[in-house]
Design a protein that fits this description.
The N terminus is likely disordered. The protein starts with 16 loop residues before the first helix and ends with a helix. Helices cover 77% and strands 1% of the residues. By secondary structure, it is mainly alpha-helical. The chain is elongated. Helix 2 runs antiparallel to helix 6 and helix 14 runs antiparallel to helix 15. It has 17 helices and two strands. The chain has two domains: 137 residues, no CATH class; 277 residues, no CATH class.
Length: 436
């Protein structure tokens, strides 16, 4: 005869809340992930000379964190997680008693910090988002594994490059968060936070091109010279190669091709900027620019076949993260944004096109970002925005042609005019015949 079954709600028929919480499916998955991350990190630590922990210790630490968090959640006592962290800290101190006494040479505290982080990861798998914990655990494992490469990179990093990184951190991580995120000023179109966010975008693109230049080296092919130089600054690339052609006429044809490629990469910058500022209207804004970019690429291909493959050293690139150019860009962007709003208010689209015509002689990024942002908010029409961008690119071509003439002489001027002829004509055709 079977024993009498206890009532479902009877106290002796239920498992304790902590046990039930630990053995539910979500908790079991979290425990499994904690075990996996512990094994991954422990495997990497096993290959070091540090004796604090290895392939067995780190999985145990992760399981300890998961169990502590599970019990804390079931009993609504989060202090248990803090108590577990305190216990981990004491155990680490006891395991390093010789180092604290100065009896052993210290190799840093990487393993100790990793152990505490492994405990917190185990706890967060129970209390927080599992995906976040997995990503953090994977990053920790990769960082630990890349220690030799990262140390070698830091030691070999030139002072100028370190300065570039720190200035970009100043621009993006220190200045940006403290700026007010609200509109003010004439026509209520100036937002300090959003303006500086665009500075971070522009400097980030330039820094990416500068990083590519440092990785590839000063010696790069014609295509890479123009592409990387254009991502950093197409105007600076034009000036650099025009000066070289002025002192050496034999490279005039090559210099003209690099200038065209740099001008073509300008469209890549513009498309990236539009996708960040106004992603919803990207197709309407981007289509005319993509057509012009394809035409430029075709001319680049023809020019490359005529010139042939020449491995020439790129001019030394300057730091793209300096604060002074960033402040100049802020002033230029603010001026153009207010000028466009005023032109729209008093003169209509023709006034906007005049602003684009003038700004293109100095910078295309500012007019691209300002018109895209105004089109996104509905201040100006989408067609007006992309037409202003095209006008700016055409005037920028005129400026580069003038720079080639002044710095590179007539030999470079003839070749630049030949390469720019079709792209310039295509830009005029787009302005005249592209449907509104």
């Amino acid at each position: 005869m079977l024993p009498t079954q206890l009532a479902p709600d009877g106290p002796s028929g239920d498992l304790p809340d902590a046990v039930q919480s630990f053995f539910d499916s979500e908790s079991l998955i979290a425990v499994g992930i904690a075990l996996g991350l512990g094994l991954l990190i422990g495997l990497q630590r096993e290959r070091t000379t540090d004796r604090l922990g290895g392939i067995r210790t780190f999985p145990l630490i992760g399981l300890f964190g998961a169990l502590a968090a599970s019990v804390a959640r079931a009993n609504d006592a989060l202090w248990l997680v803090a108590a577990g962290l305190l216990c981990m800290t004491v155990l680490i101190l006891l395991g390093n008693i010789e180092r604290l006494r100065g009896e052993e040479e210290t190799n840093g505290i990487t393993t100790e910090v990793t152990a505490l982080l492994m405990y917190l990861l185990g706890a967060y798998l129970i209390l927080g988002e599992k995906s976040v914990a997995v990503v953090v655990g994977g990053i920790v494992a990769v960082l630990l594994h890349l220690k030799p490469s990262m140390h070698a990179f830091a030691r070999k990093l030139p002072e100028q490059d370190l300065r570039s990184i720190m200035e970009f951190a100043l621009i993006s991580l220190i200045i940006l968060p403290v700026l007010p995120n609200r509109n003010f000023g004439p026509f209520d179109v100036l937002n300090p936070f959003k303006i500086w966010l665009l500075v971070v975008l522009i400097v980030g693109i330039g820094l990416g091109g500068y990083g590519a230049y440092k990785v590839i080296g000063a010696r790069a092919g014609t295509v890479l010279s123009g592409l990387i130089g254009g991502l950093i600054s197409s105007t600076a690339t034009t000036v650099s190669y025009a000066r070289r052609a002025g002192t050496n006429r034999d490279i005039a044809e090559l210099a003209a091709l690099v200038i065209l490629i740099a001008s073509t990469s300008m469209f890549i910058r513009m498309l990236v900027e539009i996708s960040v500022v106004a992603p919803r209207i990207l197709p309407q804004l981007a289509l005319p620019l993509v057509v012009l970019m394809v035409i430029n690429l075709a001319v680049c291909a023809l020019g490359y076949r005529a010139v042939g493959q020449h491995e020439k050293s790129m001019p030394e690139q300057s730091n793209p993260a300096e604060l002074s150019p960033a402040l100049i860009f802020v002033a230029l962007y603010a001026l153009i944004t207010v000028a466009i709003a005023a032109a729209k208010e008093y003169f209509g689209n023709r006034g906007i096109y005049v602003v684009a015509l003038i700004s293109g002689f100095t910078d295309v990024d500012a007019i691209t970002l300002s018109t895209a942002n105004l089109a996104r908010t509905g201040t100006i029409e989408v067609a007006t925005a992309w037409r202003a961008m095209v006008i700016a690119t055409l005037t920028n071509m005129i400026f580069k042609t003038g720079a080639a003439s002044v710095l590179g002489g007539t030999a470079l001027l003839r070749r630049v005019l030949l390469l720019f002829a079709l792209p310039f004509a295509a830009g005029i055709a787009v302005l005249l015949f592209w449907p509104h």
